[in-house]
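Support reply, case 0932

Customer input (verbatim):
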Amino acid sequence: MSLNLLILGSGSALPTLNSNQTAQVLETESEVYLIDCGEATQIELRRHKVRVQRLNHIFISHLHGDHFFGLVGLLSTMHLLGRQKTVHIHGPQGLEEIVRIQFRNAGSHLSYEMKFHTITKGDELIHEDKYVKVTSLELNHRIQTFGFLFEEQPKPRKLIPEALAKYKIPNYARKSITQGEDYVDPDGKTVKNALLSTDPEPSRRYAYCSDTAFYEPLIQRIENVDLLYHESTFLDADIERAKATYHSTAKDAARVANLAGVGKLLLGHFSNRYKNREGFLQEARPIFLESHIAEEGERYSF
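Our regenerated output:
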């Protein structure tokens, strides 16, 4: 199974003609997860041929508008397209009230159920299915804000064909061996799993961290992830503005990536005061070489 991250928007609060507010899609072979939903998200989903009816789980980091103002419109479109399947919405306290008030005051009766899952703290398993498990990450912003750690479910162990033949392992027992169990033959003799299989490839992990100031407790939570998205709203020249608004600079994001030992860093949530994003790479790469701009419309496979 491959994991693909599609960037729909990597701008910050003020949308422009060249950049959208925050939204991303994480794709597995069969599931699609929407992460934040700024304005124009449903337009970008259509542009990049992501069918909205495939979205069953939506994760909202916090209640600043550039991260969820596109949600009601997206949910309304799902209704207009005749959706029947439940939509699960994971987000902070207050999100459900905001969404339901809008539909109630509009006299709208959706064709499907919205099920809200309120996130109250970090380090909490908030969703799990056959493909991934998702854990909340506490961030440091002006209001309660959560990041999300997506972890691929453990892969099955790899069978050793020669060992299966040597120990005469029947077909019915092989699935349990791929799940790590020993084999016990009809005479009661145990064959250790390590003789029959090898370790699988490590599960891949993706951490989404927006919005936040530099936050040291986050580092140990995201150690060695394959891919990290960390907001970098400002350049170092505006560090005082970053501190005042509880945002990060490109250097802050690179420090987090370096200290956490991640595989690759995507920078995003750029202030529209900067017309050229090369400055973010110039500040980040001396600290963490594998720093990249989260380019809207790009897919990142890992």
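We compared this against your earlier run and they match. Two observations from our side: The chain has ten helices and 18 strands. The longest strand covers residues 132-138. Please reopen the case if you see a mismatch on your end.
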